[in-house]
Amino acid sequence: MEFKISKDLIQQLEQLIQSKNDQQLEVLLNDLHHADIAEILDELDFDEATYIFKVLDSEKTAEILLELEDDLRENILQRLSAKEIAEELDELDTDDAADIIAELPQSKMEEVISELEDVEHAKDIVDLLRYDEDTAGGLMGKELVKVNENWNVLTCVKEMRQQAEHVTRVHSIYVVDDEDRLKGRLSLKDLLTTSTKTPISDVYIKKVDYVKVDTPDVEVARIMQKYDLEAIPVVDEMGRLVGRITIDDIVDVIKEEADKDYQLAAGISQDVEADDSILELTRARLPWLVLALLGGFVSVKVLGLFEPAMEGHKALFFFTPLIAAMGGNVGVQSSAIIVQGLANNAITGSIIQRLLKELSLSLLNGLILSAILFAGSYFLLGYEIHIGITVTIALLSVIIIASLNGTFIPIILNKYGIDPALATGPFITTSNDILGILIYFSIARLILGF
Amino acid sequence: MEFKISKDLIQQLEQLIQSKNDQQLEVLLNDLHHADIAEILDELDFDEATYIFKVLDSEKTAEILLELEDDLRENILQRLSAKEIAEELDELDTDDAADIIAELPQSKMEEVISELEDVEHAKDIVDLLRYDEDTAGGLMGKELVKVNENWNVLTCVKEMRQQAEHVTRVHSIYVVDDEDRLKGRLSLKDLLTTSTKTPISDVYIKKVDYVKVDTPDVEVARIMQKYDLEAIPVVDEMGRLVGRITIDDIVDVIKEEADKDYQLAAGISQDVEADDSILELTRARLPWLVLALLGGFVSVKVLGLFEPAMEGHKALFFFTPLIAAMGGNVGVQSSAIIVQGLANNAITGSIIQRLLKELSLSLLNGLILSAILFAGSYFLLGYEIHIGITVTIALLSVIIIASLNGTFIPIILNKYGIDPALATGPFITTSNDILGILIYFSIARLILGF
Lengths: 450, 450
Known about the structure:
The structure is a homodimer. By secondary structure, chain A is mainly alpha-helical. Chain A has three domains: about 5-135, MgtE N-terminal domain-like (MgtE N-terminal fold, Alpha Horseshoe), CATH 1.25.60; about 145-245, CBS-domain; about 280-450, Orthogonal Bundle (Tetracycline Repressor, domain 2). Helix content of chain A is about 65%, strand content about 5%. Chain A is built from 21 helices and six strands. In chain A, the strands form two sheets. Chain A has a three-stranded mixed sheet with strand order 1-2-3. In chain A, helix 3 packs across helix 5 (about 60-65), helix 7 runs antiparallel to helix 8 (about 95-100) and helix 18 (about 315-345) packs antiparallel against helix 21 (about 425-450). The longest helix of chain A is centred in the last third of the chain and has 31 residues, at about 385-415. The first copy, chain A, is globular, with a radius of gyration of 30 Å. At the A-B interface, helix 3, helix 12, helix 13, strand 4 and helix 15 of A face helix 3, helix 12, helix 13, strand 4 and helix 15 of B.
């Protein structure tokens, strides 16, 4: 059941392309799933990929187009005429077609739309283009099965058969009134198990979950996950049924959202992949590194202030990276837990409760770690007891401060509508570094007096 | 469309519980979705939650049970008799029932099983218990609609109606032979649009994606995502159809997998949430912190080796945290990109290509950052040019080494079947800290000679 691209297959394909053996190519590729062909095209060089793309018919290539890496899709679309692109789009669901069309430059977009054969399809696609891609409107497709509440089951089944022709997967049958306003739903199962004579108004379920066109995509994902929905209808400002979102589109949103939090925590500010170009990767990574570097300047400056400590307490400087790193690590842990909690809507209780909890947690962790540090500095590293006491108290303080920082900075950002994940990663590490060094040497000055 | 728990609602419920007004409670709660009630119970104290749980009927509580936080579910299950638990399980799909039963202590588990009313249901649940929870067998449910390839459509529809009674959502109709071996599938849409006289063997689709009972859950998730499947059949070693996995179970796997990578990167070794107990949080966080602390000891030791540099080159020690932090940041970035790439099966190309790319990338980033550092140390911080040259060369070297480390340690771990995400977070930060300090002072010794 597992498809693996073999080197043999790639070689075979390359030979067939060189000898322009289109017939053999078709035979070989027609057995494969479009997602697998997309994977193969990503492996081939660009000319070969385009060649294969032109050999296959548009029913297959349309689906392949959806699965390709962004760069390759963009390149292939550039080589296709408006008419050829329109042929691809005619094969696709409206939401997928709208996504692809939105990637085109404005002039080509209009040309492609004018070439679409199915006018209804074209209307639907144009409709979808006006929604923001991060909203329910941007996610939804127009393909759905709807019936009027005033129909009887017979009319309904007849109408549905016709509608179902255009719908790849029938999840739910939506019930609307004469104004197209969403009234409820009819499950396929009910349809299978109910006699055909029953009137619609008797069988349909009046309770139906829905979202509005402007509901943010992450909110749609949260609702569908919470209520275990495989599809959800989308209504406009008047409550009219305008589309539906299916779970497979939501899987992408969930994955992207989780990946994005991780990337931000790692100091990567755009959605990049290992296979993106060096320039794209640099754009995503460099800004955070520059920020960290500037923070580093501050730490250099702060350390410079404590230069007098070098007379007599050199060892203090050997412990600086340890204290700074521990502050960074604790801060990252705390912020990761809060950011994931906020993303999952799992942060409950009052601020005071959270403060007390984080305090106890960091105190517990801090005491254990400080004890290890004290023992280590004395027995393992052989430093005098004054140094040991200083670094131990400093570590405990830094851990408490860093963990409070890591917890409350994301919560505060979130309160003001800023993505809390921004506060993780290099930002929290760098600020905790600086704070840690400052606390450390201030405590040292108090204890050792320099 | 959005449900929000209000303080009013909670107060109202608490009053009704105190006055034991069960009837009003039922009226109030019956309008709510089980996922919303679960959210409410998580907010109430434990006695109140149990009280409500006992007031509602098992059809509703069974679903609520699934949505509760683990701790609360465990607590409530402890207070229920084996018979009461069995009543809940009778209402649930086999996969959900098996998940709950697996959480019970062995003796209670057997008692509960013996109390299950529906013997077929009980058999299915017991069957599911023997699969590892991280495999397709552990994810699958027994509820599915299957037809024999030798039937005609009429028998088929009759049989299906009966089977569909037990299945919440019909995704696909699977076709099997006389030995129950999976042969293909029949789409509901085909059924809607095909005349009832057609023989099954004429209409069913022979190509069907499936997984085996021992396929790992992340692999199932990958396949379902790649091929955009909403359900996938599961076969045993003989190719017999034994269950099906639906996309909603996979959504959890995908989310958990992405969250887990992020948590590991943040130095959290177990799946914990902000609302878990202090002890659970400590267990998840402390081991990584201890590891980082031990790494810190090494950095103290290494810095101690370069003590002679303090005579005349004090400034070197002011730059230590900056160099170490930059190494850590770059390493975390590189490893995050690789870990996500490995998780998404998006790492292609040879090791040599990747090496060259990472080298160019880190060289580009490193040169820009070093230039900033050089200018900053000279103009901003006012250090002499020798120090500037030293820290600049050190930073460039550290960035290159850290980025290679961050890239190749995960790849190597992955090759040996170890979770590459383990190499991110505190591990990569700490080792890059130590390495960074070592490289920095070695270069300083070469240039400044101490």
